[in-house]
Write a structure and sequence with these properties.
By secondary structure, this protein is of the alpha/beta class. The protein is built from 13 helices and eight strands.
Length: about 290
């Protein structure tokens, strides 16, 4: 099975490990992530303005590219997934946005939301299957007590994202069981970490992160896993890494026995210029940050 893969900006610099572990694990599980050529930054935040169209166009281009290849579009980054899935919903159901986007892009055939957008975790659950994943584990993570941190972007709005029950999700806990570890259920696992206010309201974001980490620790978690680079950054920075936080793909690669392969891939990954693909404007901004 081959998927159109949208990595996003962060997975090309600050979160290369999230990307590399995902690619290595996909190969071990028998599916391929075919990176979309000349993808552009999705913006990282879904624009709520009803008259805002320009910042949605990069997502529509990626969605159309997947449609032309007859493939589902897969993301790993929670923020990218959130933006692209919501823009796809707009292109299905909001006639004004659909018309304006297609008039601007002048595609060979108008795009009207045909592409299915999947998060990598949905591929594991709905295509591979957690029972099958469990069979392929060569290094079960027995004895590890892991808290799943969902954050906001994968789950809400539930009617559009359709990822899991936003109030009582279980996909990450099922994933943790499949790789042989013990999931820790704690109250703050689907609460916001304050990622989008962390620059303006630092103290508030720090308090939000502290509540999450203290909640997880209080219920016995030894580490947290997430799919969101922004959550990862915020949880680590705001709590002085009091509790280890890792990407779910790192533990997946470890369980499948391909972690070393992924780390070798990272060593040879291109730098922030990204060769001939990727959002070079964003790369330049990161490089100069």
């Amino acid at each position: 099975m081959k998927y159109s893969y949208y990595p996003g900006c962060t997975l090309k610099n600050k979160a290369k490990d999230l990307d590399a572990y995902a690619r290595a694990s996909a190969r071990a599980l028998g599916f391929e992530l075919e990176e979309i050529e000349s993808w552009q930054c999705c913006g990282g935040v879904y624009p709520l303005g009803t008259d805002e169209i320009a910042t949605k166009l990069s997502s529509v281009r990626a969605l159309n590219d997947a449609r032309e290849k007859g493939q589902d579009l897969v993301t790993v980054c929670s923020a990218c997934h959130h933006v692209i899935k919501r823009v796809n919903d707009d292109m299905k159901h909001v006639e004004d946005i659909q018309t304006r986007a297609n008039n601007y892009l002048q595609l060979d055939e108008p795009y009207t939301g045909e592409t299915r957008v999947l998060h990598y975790l949905e591929v594991l659950r709905d295509v591979v299957g957690f029972d099958e994943l469990k069979k392929k584990v060569v290094n079960p993570l027995k004895g590890k007590k892991i808290g799943a941190y969902y954050g906001c972007l994968l789950l809400r709005p539930g009617s559009i994202m359709g990822f899991d029950n936003p109030e009582n999700p279980k996909i990450l806990e099922d994933f943790i069981r499949a790789i042989g570890a013990e999931p820790v259920i704690y109250p703050y696992r689907n609460e916001c970490c304050g990622g989008y206010i962390s620059l303006k309201e630092k103290e508030m974001a720090k308090n939000m992160c502290s509540d999450i980490v203290e909640s997880a620790e209080g219920f016995g978690a030894e580490m947290l896993i997430t799919a969101c680079p922004l959550c990862m950054y915020n949880l680590k920075k705001s709590t002085d890494e009091k509790l280890p936080v890792v990407y779910f793909t790192e533990l997946l690669a470890e369980a499948l026995g391909v972690k070393e392969e992924a780390e070798e891939l990272m060593k040879h990954a291109v730098d922030a210029t990204w060769g001939d693909t990727g959002c070079k404007a964003c790369a330049k901004g990161v490089e100069n940050a």
